Amino acid sequence: MSSERGMSLIVKTTARATIPLIGIFGAYVVSHGHLTPGGGFQGGATIAGAGILFLIAFGFGEMEKRYSHGLYSALEGLGGLAFLGAAMLGLGVAFFYNTLWHNGPLFNGRPGTLLSAGYLPIMNLAVGLKVFTGLVSAMVAIAAYRRWGE
Amino acid sequence: MKRTLGALSLLFLLGVLLTVASPSNGVKFGPGGSEWTKYRYTDEYYIEHGVEEVGGTNIVTDIVFDYRGYDTLGEATVLFTAIAGAVALLRPWRRDGDE
């Protein structure tokens, strides 16, 4: 089936050039979530956009080789668990107590630097991972659903 | 008949909302000055104390992940449930002539 091969050569080459850029930009948005606009949800959706571009440009057959359903499901659960774990760090005081910022060993730099804001970078990474894997697995599930009657 | 009633009730609700949302007898848009400290004192607190209490210079992230973390937890749960439901419903439910 020719539609399994993806789109034309120009689209594939452009996708090869832009997918890393989109991924890097999404990683920037996620990791600087406590300093600049954006955060876990937005950055995760941006990286998932790179995955969807890969799926559309190279076709479902190519995506099927690189996509592992178990790995993506496990990573989504892991993102949620990391979020909960970061929320439970200050459980001695309260749930969602930012103990890393108040008296933690790391992530308590000057506000405005990358290693500041307590558990916020951890939570941003966890949410970004969760959103990215969730959206990509949903798109792959939609793409794999069925053929239009061959 | 039922459709007419539904359209009329929608029209009524729209009128009520337009009345309530008009600045003369309801919600004020763009509060500033004394109205800001009267109606937006929670925002004032977040803006003044966010950086020292949470540490992030992005106030929205401070609110979403620290002050109101439960909300984000529920949001992540909603997303998880949506993805799980979509993937579970989109599974092949009949092996009809798999390619």
UniProtKB/TrEMBL annotation, chain A:
Keywords: Cell membrane, Membrane, Transmembrane, Transmembrane helix. It is a multi-pass membrane protein. The chain crosses the membrane at residues 9-29, 41-60, 72-97, 117-145. GO terms for cellular component: plasma membrane. It is found in: Cell membrane. It comes from the Archaea. Residues 10-136 form the Na+/H+ antiporter MnhB subunit-related protein domain. Pfam families: MnhB. InterPro entries: CPA3_antiporter_subunitB, MnhB. Its main location: membrane. This is Cation:proton antiporter. It comes from Thermococcus celer Vu 13 = JCM 8558.
Automatic annotation (TrEMBL), chain B:
This is MrpA C-terminal/MbhE domain-containing protein. Keywords: Membrane, Transmembrane, Transmembrane helix. It holds the Pfam family MbhE. Residues 43-95 form the MrpA C-terminal/MbhE domain. The chain crosses the membrane at residues 76-93.
